[in-house]
Amino acid sequence: MKDAVAAGEILPEAMTIATSTRAGEPSARMVLLRGFDERGFGFFTNYDSQKGRELAENPRAALVIYWPKLGRQVRVTGQVTRQSAEESTTYFHNRPLASQLSAWASPQSEVIANRAVLEDAVGGLAAKYEGREVPLPERWGGYRVIPKTIEFWLHRENRLHDRLRYTRQAGGAWRMERLAP
After folding, report:
1. Distance CA 32, CA 151 (A)
2. pLDDT by 10s per residue, the chain, length 181
3. 115-128 and 97-105 helices cross at what angle (nearest 10)?
4. How far is CA 112 from the centre of its chain?
5. CA 92 → CA 12, 98, 151, 171, distances in Å?
6. Catalytic residues
7. How far apart are CA 47 and CA 107, in angstroms?
8. In terms of pTM, does the model score above 0.90?
9. DSSP symbol at 58
């Protein structure tokens, strides 16, 4: 991540997340990586969104982070859990006010009549919460992908890319394997 920032990647925290329904119908979209540590990879969204509904049915996901300037990508698969209410609240209140209001105003993934519906909702919320802290919506918060596998891919000439896959073993140790490109 530090290398991606230093290289001037546009939105180095952008990642694709793939989820699926209980029946296995896949869906992928871009989200922003909002923290990673030994516990996993975090992102935030509306729990009632398509991805939120899919994660409630099937709490597994795949992530891909790609940095074209560096010729690198990171792939992650694993179980998904909700972050704590405290973590979600802390992150929510560190967002710009307009983003907080948008989280309240948007019925994410639902059909709406037009853009004015959203803009009117944000305007009403801005008036309602003027001079006050915007509370965390009950339907909004963080998820964490707890990695089962992490693969690092590095572009090499002649398609002989480096691929290193780490797989979590029982007890938490990681097994590293080199994969053919």
Report:
1. 19
2. 999 999 999 999 999 999 999 999 999 999 999 999 999 999 999 999 999 999 999 999 999 999 999 999 999 999 999 999 999 999 999 999 999 999 999 999 999 999 999 999 999 999 999 999 999 999 999 999 999 999 999 999 999 999 999 999 999 999 999 999 9
3. 120
4. 24
5. 20, 11, 30, 33
6. 159
7. 10
8. yes
9. S
